[in-house]
Amino acid sequence: MQDKPYRAFPGRERILIADDADVGRGILRSLLKKDYDVIEAKNGLEVIQILKSAPENIATLLLDMMMPVMDGFGVLEFMRRNGLTETIPTIAITAISDPEGKIACYEAGAADFIEKPYDPKLLLYKIKRGISVSRAAAQRRIGENGIGSFHDQALDALPVAIFYADAKSRIATYSNALFETLPFALNGRRNATIEEIFPAGVLPDVQKAVSRLVSERVSAPVHLDLEKSGRHLTLHFTALQDAAGDISDIVGTIVDNTRDFKCRRDLERRIEELSRGRFAQ
Amino acid sequence: MKQDVLLYLTGKLGIDHGDAKDLYRSFMDTFGEWLGTLKNAAPDDYEEIRRISHAFIGFSASVGANDLMLLSERLNASAKNKDSVSVRMAALMIENLHGQYLLERQ
Questions:
Q1: Alpha helix stretches (DSSP H) within chain A
Q2: Positive or negative CA dihedral for A197, A181, A1, A12?
Q3: CB atoms < 10 A from the CB of B90, how many?
Q4: Are A51 and A88 a contacting pair, CB within 8 Å?
């Protein structure tokens, strides 16, 4: 089980801009500040300091390859050695577009590159694509680490909230939809338990469902009415078992019935099928 | 020239006018500093001249100063070819053009 969620807590994605020239950073800051949190570094060593302190907070690195102190190639070498090239997509910034230079960027580990002068649409597209790729990589890693590729890369695309918890109900990973469904969920806390993300009014029903799942291995849908928001939710818990038959993980799915999803019934049916399938294993 | 840059920053990149003016000032300051580095570089230190020209290209391209970018590319190519006459010519032309930018700034 992962100790940390697969991404930082919700909010704007954070982009790290590395360029020794004020004007270079200024242009990118102006282009990105509407959509992203922007932090800046003036050389490669500053980039490495930031990456060492909180790499999970960086969604994408925009890296000028020509910088003093330590250039972009030095940064990419550090990232490669520390396994960061897959998790933090790096877009190399180049001013001279010779093929050898581009190939060198790719070989060093850059996910992409962009040339000056910038095309803002292309830049934003490349950043979005980079973030999407790194998320997918994070999801794959979760799968490789034992939770399984149950929902894999489609996790965020589903109009249902999904979360994984360990056998002690501590939530480890979750889809973005959890925050739309339960806006107060997690509230910035890591290692929150399942019980902590639901409002007090529906808590007895949630606790009962968890209890039945753990003790009786019964996965029945729970219907919850959230008084404050007026939402009606359907909650399913599914237990994943280890080789000894003990519960290793709990998967929770929440369908918001107040939202008009055309595929909601199909999803509910599919979730029930999955639940039955898991117990049958 | 200045207007072209501001138009590029606001029109093509969609940067608001206040930020664009700040960026233009930053560009002029940065370019001026690097021009000083070019003047201090040894005439036959082609690696250093290429490094400087690369920086020129980056700044100019970023803000859409195409005239300075083209001259900087010429400087870069001249240094790559170790053509001292062309390097000197390109450096003088860049200095001259930068001077015109400075006049507009005032």
A1: 22-32, 44-53, 72-81, 99-108, 120-142, 177-181, 203-216, 264-280
A2: negative
A3: 23
A4: yes
Residues B94/B35, Cβ–Cβ less than 8 Å: yes
Tokens of A255: 């369908």
CA-wise closest residue to A63 among A30, A109, A100, A2:
A109
Structure tokens at A184: 């107060």
Nearest by CB: A26 against B8, B26, B61? B26
**Helix (H), strand (E) at residue A174:** strand A171-174
Going B57 to B59 to B62 to B63, the CA torsion angle's sign is negative
Q: Which two tokens stand for residue A13?
A: 């994605």
Residues A206, A223: Cα–Cα separation, whole Å:
9
- Chain B positions in Cβ-Cβ contact with residue A31 (cut-off 8 Å): 13-15
Query: Which residue is listed with tokens 């019934």?
Result: A265
β-bridge mates for residue A14, sequence order = A37
Dump pLDDT digits (tens) for A105-159. Answer: 888 889 888 888 888 889 999 998 888 877 776 666 555 544 444 444 445 445 5
Q: What is the DSSP string of A129-161?
A: HHHHHHHHHHHHHHIIIII-SSSGGGGGGSSSE
Note whether A21 contacts B59, CB cutoff 8 Å. yes
Among residues A119, A109, A54, A52, which one has the least CA distance to residue A86? A109
Q: How far apart are CA A95 and CA A280, in angstroms?
A: 58
- Report d(CA B55, CA B84) in Å as an integer: 19
Cβ atoms within 10 Å of A100's Cβ, excluding its own: 8
* Residue A237 host element (H or E): strand A231-241
Compute the nearest-CA separation of B29 from chain A (Å).
9
Q: Is the ipTM of this complex over 0.90?
A: no
**DSSP secondary-structure letter at A193?**
B
